[in-house]
Amino acid sequence: MGQEAGSTRMSIAPASGKLAVLLPGLGAVATTLIGGVEAVKRGLAKPIGSLTQMGTIRLGKRTEHRSPLIRELVPLASLEDLCFGGWDVFPDSAFDSAAHAKVIEPALLEQVRAPLEAIRPMAAVFSPEYVKRLHGTHVKQAPTKRALGEALREDIRRFLKENGCSRAVMVWCASTEIYIERSAVHASLAAFEKGLDENDPAIAPSMIYAWAALKEGVPFANGAPNLTVDVPAIVELARKQRLPIAGKDFKTGQTLMKTVIAPMLKARMLGLVGWFSTNILGNRDGEVLDDPGSFKTKEVSKLSVLEHILQPHLYPDLYGHFDHKVSIHYYRPRGDNKEGWDNIDIAGWLGYPMQIKVNFLCRDSILAAPVALDLALFMDLAARAGLSGIQEWLSFYFKSPMVAEGLYPEHDLFIQLQKLKNTLRHLAGEELITHLGLDYYEH
Length: 443
Ligand SMILES: NC(=O)c1ccc[n+]([C@@H]2O[C@H](COP(=O)([O-])OP(=O)(O)OC[C@H]3O[C@@H](n4cnc5c(N)ncnc54)[C@H](O)[C@@H]3O)[C@@H](O)[C@H]2O)c1
Description:
By secondary structure, the protein is an alpha/beta fold. The protein has 16 helices and 11 strands. It folds into 2 domains: about 20-250 and about 365-425, Rossmann fold (3-Layer(aba) Sandwich); about 255-360, Dihydrodipicolinate Reductase, domain 2 (2-Layer Sandwich).
């Protein structure tokens, strides 16, 4: 970055003109985001859960009493300037899809009917090989994966033109794809583009969207646990295009809790014997995750968190042998209102056992929508500030944060928040906050 932290304001292009928020997957999360933004714009509801809309940031010393809203410190796109679009394998409008998802209550949904009805998904790049439980028909046909990517690029250009947008961001809100491991085709951009020509099976639809977005100068954030942009080939493309990327998997319910409770256990040197997590949910995401291939992708994402936070190699006596189980059960009657249970077996002084039980009755998409909104706005900010490649400061929003090769991810929610806020202070030329505070006591 070539400047001292907190010395001068970085040059950030203004947020002028309309910002296209392009969403592959117009399902429960995407329509709760769009319907929510429309409701907030009309003063019908508050943007609760969104740091960009409600969060403040302390600047300088505690004695200075400076705590502006984050959106007053850095130039973010305003909700009025957002223009939503997307793709789906079903042709339903955002209104019909929201009605099907049953997250936003009918009375509120009715009040935002017009803007949601106007959003019709573009035909998806999709193959049931990658999401076994879905059989949509609103799908693009082309002989190669490169041709499908080119069709998406055309969609992006057309959307920007037709809607008079000055720039765009893409946030993946589509279904979780089957588990794919990194392979040779992901190792470099050249190998990846050859794979697009040769229809390599290790290139999933989500990767084609990411490739198309970056080729069109559009930042990409990944809300699902798919590999997608977490491969060297796409990181290389992002660096080449000087664009930000981020992922993966929105951190919303059970993992949000885990990344608060586990750091507490470690902070107090309490041992962990076992952590049993289970969920029931009945939305389409739950149905997709009922397939072992898609569940494996989610499971890997959910399981990695504890190892990284607890660092068993540093604390073998406390965390050397804990059991960690995660399961998700599709249970239709529950709809989007997921219920998560955690049973945590811990050990205290002299090894005495204790238990913590957490029963989180949450609403999946109500938790995810503000995360998707913040990511769209912060990714746009990052692009205008010239930040490119992996945006680790947005780890706060992800279950499996992407990090540079050789780094372990930081999962502790409050370290992530501090990193996010310090990045904003840095962008704004404000002093970073270390919480040392000795100077308050020097007389
Ligand atoms: N709290 C949360 O809700 C939460 C948290 C973390 C991650 N996620 C992830 O976010 C994603 C969206 O969740 P949701 O509840 O909205 O699911 P959903 O099933 O309601 O919506 C996903 C939509 O994506 C569409 N789709 C699938 N493949 C597509 C493709 N290749 N191109 C375009 N559209 C495609 C489906 O038809 C569906 O309408 C899922 O991957 C989910 O795992 C959600």
